[in-house]
Amino acid sequence: MNIVEIIEKKKNGKNLTDEEIKFFIDGIMSGNIEDYQTSALLMAIYFQGMTIEETTSLTKYMVESGEILDLSKISKNIIDKHSTGGVGDKITLIFLPLMAASGIYTAKLSGRGLGHTGGTIDKLESIPNFKTDLSIKEFKEKVKKYKTAIASQTLSLAPADGKLYALRDVTSTVDIIPLIASSVVSKKIASGANHIILDVKYGSGAFIKTKKEAKKLSEFMVEIGKRLNKNICAVISSMEQPLGRAIGNSIEVQEVIEFLKGNIEEDLKELTYTLCFQALKKAEKYTDKEEAFKYLDGLIKSGKALEKFKEIIESQNGDSTVINDYLKFPQAKIKYEVKSSKTGYVSDIDALKIAKACKNLGAGRNKKSDMIDYSAGIYLTQKFKDPVKKGETIAVIYTNKAETIKESEKLIVSAYEITNEPPQKRQLIYKIIE
Questions:
Q1: CB count, 10 Å around CB of 371?
Q2: 224 has a pLDDT exceeding 70
Q3: pLDDT digits (tens, 9 = 90+) for 319-363
Q4: 264, 373, 395, 410 - which has most CB atoms within 10 Å?
């Protein structure tokens, strides 16, 4: 068996065996397979695809390429939640305290963002002194003691995925379902949770553009999880418009705090509660959606969820006084109001254009080594279905880069579609794959 024969086989559209895929991953990790050979196989996979059997084998050996966390001594029910990413997606930061307040253990390893805003880790690091670089031992201890912890992804988990992704990124082989599915699921399995909840997004602000492709990816990931003995489900949601009103880093954390104080945006609530309900079902706490939603409302109204968020901050060395003093967050020097060009109702906000504007302002990265501005962001004062008058403020820009304001303003204005009649309600959650 050799890598050239494997490349040739896949190039000709034939299925690879479990042994051939193991040989490939072992060769990547040992250095016996060169990057140019790996790139050739990735391109062959891109054009010829992989079956569910091939993708399951690929996922399994990616998991086994590194350390696998064992959280079974903490609880029989450990939840992990993953999002494929979106504009204004701060759901994880609401999900974790709600689950901890419910008595459900959650163990969350996240990455930094690459694109229009930071990832969940970047958002948390906008809280002064918040520590995300936890050792495996620290991570386990915090999950056990506080019922939740969130840390930056360790390189020791599914390292084969890191090697493959670096090459996928520079060979334009990122956007193919088998490679996306194996990347996501391998990291989730290696992270040690036995229940995995996926938030798979589609639309202009997501890397998956259509419902059809999101459904196919979700079904692939759920089936792989099942074959590898994990309890896994996927919630497919729309990313045609931004989630909530805040897009950025520290500004999104502030919106999370407001949500936990009871100042709730309905789209954030619908998606967060739906994901929480999946977790409550897996932990055998609730089987009725309406009852579960009432229970979650109670955790907000009682202040228990906010108290848990404070506890999470303090447990990871962060300054929890930010909860009542937003001036403790990094502050942008420039605040600029974007005005509406017409009167009517907001019938659409293009998530991708808002994302591009936010990145211009300094909230995102082009490459992983780039520094981001935690204070940069956009706050949407007018959202879907809101009435608006010509000249009224529709969004507020926060930045330290004055030279980016005009271009970002153009993007924001063009992102807003304003019509004479109020629009019909849009579907946020498309389907749940279990």
A1: 7
A2: yes
A3: 999 999 999 999 999 999 999 999 999 999 999 999 999 999 999
A4: 395
Catalytic residue among 187, 215, 282, 310: 187
Cα three-residue angle 132-138-142, rounded to 5 degrees: 85
| Burial call 128-157: b when 16+ CB within 10 Å, e when fewer | eebebebebeebbebbeebbbbbbbbbeeb
Which entry of 60, 168, 282, 308 is annotated as an active-site residue?
A: 168
Domain boundaries along the sequence of the chain: 3-49, 78-323, 332-419
- Identify the DSSP state of 404: G
199: annotated active-site residue:
no
**Do the bridges between strand 393-399 and strand 429-433 make them parallel or antiparallel, or are there none, so unpaired?**
unpaired
116 is catalytic: no
From 429, 425, 368, select the one nearest 115 (Cα to Cα).
Answer: 368
Strands (E), 132-283: 148-152, 195-202, 231-238, 246-248
Query: What pTM does this model have?
Result: 0.93
Q: What is the pLDDT of residue 30?
A: 96
Class of CATH domain 3-49: mainly alpha
Q: In what order do the strands lie in the sheet with 377-380?
A: 246-248, 377-380, 393-399, 334-339
* Average pLDDT in the chain: 94
Identify the pLDDT of residue 370.
76
Q: What's the token pair of residue 16?
A: 């690879």
CATH number given to 78-323: 3.40.1030.10
pLDDT of 170 reads 83
Among 373, 369, 381, 380, CA closest to 404: 373
From the list 57, 182, 183, 375, the catalytic residue is: 183
Express each pLDDT in 229-244 by its tens digit.
999 999 999 999 999 9
Active site residue 187: yes
Residue 114 has pLDDT above 60, yes or no: no
Q: Is 201 a catalytic residue?
A: no
CATH topology of domain 332-419: Aldehyde Oxidoreductase; domain 3 (3.90.1170)
**Comparing 82-86, 159-163, 350-354, 366-370, which segment has the lowest mean pLDDT?**
366-370
Q: List, edge to edge, every strand of the sheet that includes 416-419.
A: 387-388, 344-349, 416-419
AA letter at 431:
K
Residue for token pair 């880093």: 249
CB 316 within 8 A of CB 148: no
Tell me, yes or no, if 161 is annotated catalytic: yes
